[in-house]
Inverse folding.
């Protein structure tokens, strides 16, 4: 999950970046409204956290433009402006949520998880595909009830695939959503992470039970096990 | 003393009665008094004039031909009879006059009552729009100051009153809005450093692998944020200062300027800016020194901060008419025309990014203007974009 933070307070932006980073999110920081728009237009973020008092361009304007350019990008406004008019205007201009500073970091992360659940088919707090179960809150993955120990990147890749089971996800898309701007990542290192993920899942390339490589296209999390898995759990 | 008692009496008499009844009673009373006056006048006039008129008109019939009167034994009317008839005539006149008086007085009272009733109806109609206005005004609350009476009626006194009231509402709404904005801005400025502290703290607390260096960074963040809160609170208290808290003492303006120039020397050197005090004289005035130093510090600080690299700041003190002028001229980027009218507003920032990096609260110029205002003076500013700005403090000499 990749998050864009548009915030001009350096102390705040750094804390958010660090905090969300520890939670496994890939984070980019923009310190002005224009920079935020630029990054928002170029990359496919899973979420934008937007301050309102920004230099160069007001946050509400940024919100409006981001929304018209990226209709599906969830936007969370995080600001010290607490007036009712601002809150109403922010949400009406296309923001998905509005949180007033000072806030509790736990609340922010809970809201982020809630927003990220919205574009899933079901809105259960945990992702379940077959006998795989992923809890974004505690950042744990179970395979048939047994907890797996994954690195941040493996977790990120698996989370992204589990959000779209059965769909082919390209390497570029994985890079977009799991790594931030500062990291120059190549498809080779994606393969390394996929490989170690396969090893931990006990999967094989020749006879895949979980992760299927679609040559020249990307990766697919096999969904047919979903049905069987759901039947067994029900 | 007597006058006050009289006015007390007046207010006691006039206040408890509604306007409608006061108009009715006053008009009724006035009608009655005028009517009575008229009655007395006509009565007096008739009592003077009528007997004479009657004497001349009636006397031939009152002295009948002696031959025609069978009761008269003699052909000469006796003087006593004459007296008697004139006496009875006087009585008749008297009765007639009395009746006339009675009728006129009753008439006057009747018409006065009718008049008062008419006045009541007319006044009621005239006052109705006032009552309507009253209802409209009663509905306006602090939360609904955007409402206007916008009374639709011919341009009479009531329309003028309603329009004036609407104008007052405009001003009130402006003032409320400004106050609200100020509070919101102040809250925003306070919340930002508080939020910085809380978020940094919670992120480090939530990270089990946080190192000692992380905590050192955290303490630095706290240091910065606390300084911001302290500065803001200090600035807000300065803005709340009233005239009573000013302590005047004679001070030399050039001396304060030199002190301030020394204090800002480091910043000026960083930006390679030459700050010059042109005035050689000593202008001594009665001022609150700590507060007034703050004004000059803010202005000179701005002149350096928003200058170009290698620019200059020229400061002069001039004696002009009723005022002492302190001019602070810079060679900076200038202030855009559309921002000029607002630069003394609280939290107004010409350029968000620029002011934020300077660490200012956005209150410097408001504070300067407020303190100069407390000294009965004012600040004005001329500025041209790309050339520079000149701030002039005007201080009255007395």
């Amino acid at each position: 999950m990749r998050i864009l933070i548009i915030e001009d307070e350096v102390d705040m932006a750094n804390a958010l970046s660090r905090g969300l980073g520890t939670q496994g999110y890939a984070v980019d920081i923009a310190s002005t409204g224009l920079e935020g728009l630029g990054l928002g237009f170029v990359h496919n973020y899973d979420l934008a956290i937007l301050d309102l008092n920004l230099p160069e361009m007001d946050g509400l304007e940024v919100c409006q433009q981001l929304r018209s350019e990226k209709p599906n990008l969830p936007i969370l406004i995080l600001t010290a402006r607490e007036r009712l008019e601002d809150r109403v205007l922010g949400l009406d201009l296309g923001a998905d949520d509005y949180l007033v500073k000072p806030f509790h970091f736990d609340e922010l992360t809970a809201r982020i998880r809630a927003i990220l659940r919205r574009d899933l088919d079901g809105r259960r707090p945990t992702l379940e595909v077959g006998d795989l179960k992923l809890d974004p809150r505690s950042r744990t993955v179970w395979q048939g009830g047994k907890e797996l120990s994954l690195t941040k990147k493996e977790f990120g890749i698996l989370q992204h695939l589990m959000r779209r089971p059965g769909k082919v996800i390209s390497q570029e898309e994985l890079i977009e959503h799991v790594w931030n701007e500062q990291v120059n990542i190549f498809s080779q290192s994606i393969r390394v992470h996929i490989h170690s993920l396969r090893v931990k899942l006990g999967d094989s390339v020749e006879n895949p039970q979980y992760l299927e490589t679609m040559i020249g296209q990307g990766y697919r999390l096999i969904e047919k096990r979903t049905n069987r898995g759901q039947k067994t759990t029900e | 003393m007597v006058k006050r008692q009289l006015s007390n009496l007046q207010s006691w008499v006039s206040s408890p009665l509604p306007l409608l009844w006061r108009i009715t009673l006053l008009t009724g009373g006035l009608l009655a008094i005028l009517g009575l006056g008229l009655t007395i006048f006509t009565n007096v006039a008739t009592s003077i004039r009528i007997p004479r008129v009657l004497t001349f008109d009636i006397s031939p019939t009152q002295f009948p031909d002696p031959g025609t009167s069978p009761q008269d034994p003699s052909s000469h009317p006796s003087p006593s009879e004459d007296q008697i008839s004139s006496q009875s005539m006087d009585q008749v006149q008297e009765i007639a006059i009395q009746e006339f008086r009675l009728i006129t007085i009753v008439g006057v009272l009747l018409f006065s009552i009718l008049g008062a009733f008419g006045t009541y109806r007319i006044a009621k109609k005239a006052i109705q729009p006032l009552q309507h206005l009253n209802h409209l005004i009663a509905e306006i609350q602090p939360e609904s100051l955007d409402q206007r009476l916008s009374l639709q009626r011919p341009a009479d006194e009531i329309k003028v009153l309603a329009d004036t009231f609407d104008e007052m509402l405009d001003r009130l709404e402006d003032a409320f809005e400004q106050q609200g904005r100020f509070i919101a801005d102040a809250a925003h400025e306070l919340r930002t450093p508080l939020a910085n502290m809380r978020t940094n703290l919670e992120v480090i607390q939530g990270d089990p692998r946080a190192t000692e260096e992380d905590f050192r960074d955290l303490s630095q963040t706290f240091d910065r944020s606390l300084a911001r809160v302290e500065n803001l609170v200090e600035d807000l208290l300065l803005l709340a200062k009233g005239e009573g808290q000013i302590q005047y003492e004679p001070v030399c303006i050039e001396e304060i300027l030199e002190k301030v120039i020394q204090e800002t020397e480091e910043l000026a050197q960083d930006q390679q800016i030459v700050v010059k005090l042109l005035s050689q004289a000593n202008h001594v005035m009665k001022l609150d020194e700590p507060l007034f130093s703050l004004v000059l510090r803010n202005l000179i600080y701005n002149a350096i901060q928003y200058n170009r690299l290698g620019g200059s700041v020229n400061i002069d003190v001039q004696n002009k008419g009723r005022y002492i002028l302190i001019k602070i001229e810079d060679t900076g980027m200038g202030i855009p025309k559309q921002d000029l009218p607002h630069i003394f507003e609280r939290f107004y920032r010409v350029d968000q990014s620029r002011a934020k990096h300077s660490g200012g609260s956005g209150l410097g110029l408001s504070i300067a203007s407020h303190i100069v205002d407390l000294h009965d003076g004012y600040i004005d500013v001329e500025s041209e974009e790309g050339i520079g700005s000149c701030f002039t403090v005007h201080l009255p000499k007395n």
Remarks:
- Residues 225-234 of chain A have pLDDT under 50 and may be disordered.
- Chain A touches chain B through 26 residues (CB under 8 Å).
